[in-house]
Amino acid sequence: MENLLFINACVRGERSRTRKLARRFLEAYQAKHPDNTITERNLCDERLQPQYPEILDERDALWNAGRLDQPMFEPARQFAAADRIVVAAPFWDLSFPAILKIYLERISVADITFGYDERGAMKGLCRASKLLLITTRGGRYAGTPLEMATPTMKALCVMYGIPEFQCLDAEGLDDVRQDRAALLAAAERRADALAEVF
Description:
The protein is of the alpha/beta class. It has a single domain (3-197), classed as 3-Layer(aba) Sandwich (Rossmann fold), CATH 3.40.50.360. The chain has 7 helices and 7 strands; from the N terminus they run E-H-E-H-H-H-E-H-E-E-E-H-E-H. The chain has a 5-stranded parallel β-sheet with strand order 2-1-3-6-7, with helices on both faces. A two-stranded antiparallel ribbon has the order 4-5. The longest helix is centred in the C-terminal third of the chain and has 18 residues, at 180-197. It is globular and about 55 Å long. The mean pLDDT is 97.
């Protein structure tokens, strides 16, 4: 049995198109892999705080004391232990909502999600073999310099030692010239296919 960690950064909740696409993928994944568990982390519910000076000071003190078992590091420990990871985040301001950036800062902890070898080179410590980013965009930005979510998540996969990165997206959803329902339906079909092999 494997554990899939679902990071939900869909700020609009049930109204979110990204959340709808993620739900379709997760339902298809669970149907294909009934013995696996899905653990959801809803970042809106958690109200994580940015790394203000006092929070960073506490984090540094705990890390320097080797107290990586403390609650502050629980998100990083959970992320590092997951077998598969799915991140659902809409395309906002060229990347993704700030709550996801705050979470990524929280889990980027040396000796939990990444470390360094004897030559000082960074090495990933995460167990997951795959990370999937699920996103929706109002316009068409994939593969352009204006789309920075995918490169960021790809780079973090290298940092965390996650060998395979994939992106499931739906684009052009705010373009009134497009059949938006058809675009989302096509993305849902891709979600079904991807769930079989993820």
